[in-house]
Amino acid sequence: MENVILVDTQDREVGVMEKMQAHQQAKLHRAFSVFLLNDKNEILLQQRAANKYHCGGMWTNTCCSHPRVGETLQIAVDRRLREEMGVVCETNWIYSFIYKADVGGGLVEHEFDHVFFGRFSGTPQPDESEVANWAYLGLNELEEDVKNNPTKYTPWFKIILAEVVDKEILNKVA
Q: Which positions are annotated as active-site residues?
């Protein structure tokens, strides 16, 4: 059984709940999303494995997950990058936001999401139980594909991508 850390709108811990229960009850919980850029400033995307508990088969950012109780965000980011993508690299927190999205199957993601960026130009070695496929895409190509094929992408990824574009974050981390 995996737990998530419940938080208030200031990211202060208010409790712990089993992950599926938190998603069924739409409880606000702590999460993180990682974007890795290669030396061409292309974003490393992953296609979630078909058997994931929600959004299976959809494309999303490099890595996303929840920190464990007692685990710092940075340690959680490093751990999940290794576990999901087989990648070890430096990442840095860029910003945080709250979102709520119906992800199907009676589940709702309601997350205080911390967004990290890093650099990686190699070939990931993803865990096949987590990741079905991966690709590097440039921002213009990615924006066009999200516009033309929005159902291919996870709800949180579309929100973050819009903010990354709006706030010109790639220019700041490039």
A: 64, 111
